[in-house]
Write a structure and sequence with these properties.
The structure is a single chain. This protein is of the alpha+beta class. It has a single domain (19-176), classed as Glutaredoxin (3-Layer(aba) Sandwich), CATH 3.40.30. It has helices spanning 39-55, 75-86, 91-100, 107-116, 121-129, 134-146, 168-176; strands at 19-21, 28-34, 59-65, 154-157, 160-162. Strands 1-3-2-4-5 form a five-stranded mixed sheet. Helix 1 (39-55) links the parallel strand 2 and strand 3 (59-65). Helix 2 runs antiparallel to helix 3 and helix 4 (107-116) packs antiparallel against helix 5 (121-129).
Length: 186
């Protein structure tokens, strides 16, 4: 998401509640607020994967949910499905499947993905039907709103919103730029 305004800080740095790839003490930090039904997030997904591979253990990447439910009606349920998969230690695998099958995010599709990942499908369905992870998803949305997120994908580099879109070179250059002294540690 390109935004020409000031670069708001990430109000809630990555912590133990987040889904993170990379070591907790990595020197580089990238956070994405995304929506599983957003076509821009889908295009950004392989770019993020390239960045994660490129920087390896130097990078800590966190994904947070920001379903734009008014324009993407299945996004919130998809986010809850990712959380249900996380409860069975398969967040990142479900995350990838959801982007790969972005046009098929109804409950029956989500259950099929759970089966592909060898999750406990009855438990998965029960948790989704009960809305067990709705609050967790909403917490990400609230943290995004407090950080100035207004669309997806929105990236934060070193805890400051990155207003340069999601092109590989732009994100790499931003990550290669050392954090400023006023950037809070994570």
């Amino acid at each position: 998401m390109i935004n020409s305004g000031p670069t708001p800080p990430l109000t809630m740095p990555l912590g133990t509640r987040d889904h993170v790839l990379g070591p907790p003490d990595a020197r580089l930090v990238l956070v994405e607020y995304g929506d599983y039904q957003c076509p821009h997030c889908r295009r950004a997904h392989p770019i993020v994967r390239q960045i994660v591979a490129r920087f390896g253990d130097q990078l800590k990447f966190g994904f947070r949910h920001f379903p734009l439910s008014k324009i993407h009606p299945q996004a919130r349920l998809a986010a809850q499905a990712a959380e249900a998969a996380a409860a069975q230690e398969k967040f990142w695998q479900m995350h990838d499947l959801l982007f790969r099958h972005q046009d098929e995010l109804e409950l029956d599709h989500l259950a099929q993905y759970a089966a592909v990942l060898e999750l406990d499908v009855p438990r998965f369905r029960d948790e989704l039907n009960a809305g067990l992870y709705a609050r967790r998803v909403q917490e990400d949305v609230v943290s995004g709103l407090r950080s100035g997120v207004n669309g997806t994908p929105t990236f934060y580099v070193h805890n400051k919103r990155f207003n340069g879109g999601y092109e590989l070179d732009a994100l790499v250059n931003a990550l290669d730029t050392p954090p400023t002294p006023d950037t809070p540690p994570t």
